[in-house]
Amino acid sequence: MKTFIATAALTLGLAGGALADPVLGTWKTQVDDGNYAHIKMAKCGDKVCGTIAKAFDASGPIQTDNVGKKLVWAMVPKGDGYYASGKIWQPSTDKVYKSKMSLSGNSLKVSGCVGPICKKQTWTRVN
């Protein structure tokens, strides 16, 4: 019985690790209005959200009230590295866009639209 319980616990533990969402972790944005950020992607219930973990300019880390704020929220995993139905905030314009993301290895293509105006960035995983 002890062996069965240990085997079941190990199997569930391995399955849980295999089910971890590959987009989770920290991502570096592209430069926008002279600044960029590290975004910490995490689970928000059954969705994915991203919070500004650090901010930078050309000289290095900067202090800003945006650190700690949500940049991405309500992103729904659709499978195969695709996420949709989310929202993304652009700090430089204070606009919120309907957003989707597509993950390929250590690159995350992020796009957002407000009406006919769409913007895109490719973020890179921070190791």
From TrEMBL:
It comes from the Bacteria. Keywords: Signal. InterPro entries: DUF2147. Residues 1-20 form the signal peptide. Residues 25-125 form the DUF2147 domain. The keyword Hydrolase does not apply. This is DUF2147 domain-containing protein.
